[in-house]
Design a protein that fits this description.
75 residues; little secondary structure; three-stranded antiparallel β-sheet; 2 helices; DUF1272; DUF1272 domain-containing protein
Length: 75
């Protein structure tokens, strides 16, 4: 199950589990669409993998399977 991390690791932008503009790599590194499509050019800076759109999680499943609250952005 995806951790659904709550923020962009590059800029810190909030990325709630229901937004459709989050991108992840196979290790679940998470970035906003602006960073993924701009400076990162679709490539994860951590592992070198492709960044793909992160699926959303249906609202009725969030209570049972909550998204992560661990923020990864390093200021």
């Amino acid at each position: 199950m995806l951790a659904m991390r709550p923020d962009c690791e590059r800029c810190g932008r909030d990325l709630p589990p229901q937004v459709d503009d989050a991108f992840i790599c196979s290790f679940e590194c998470t970035f906003c669409s602006d960073c993924a499509g701009g400076p990162l050019a679709g490539c994860c800076p951590n592992c070198g993998g492709d960044l793909r759109p992160r699926p959303t999680r249906a609202a009725h499943l969030l209570e049972r399977f909550p998204a992560s609250t661990e923020r990864k952005h390093q200021a």
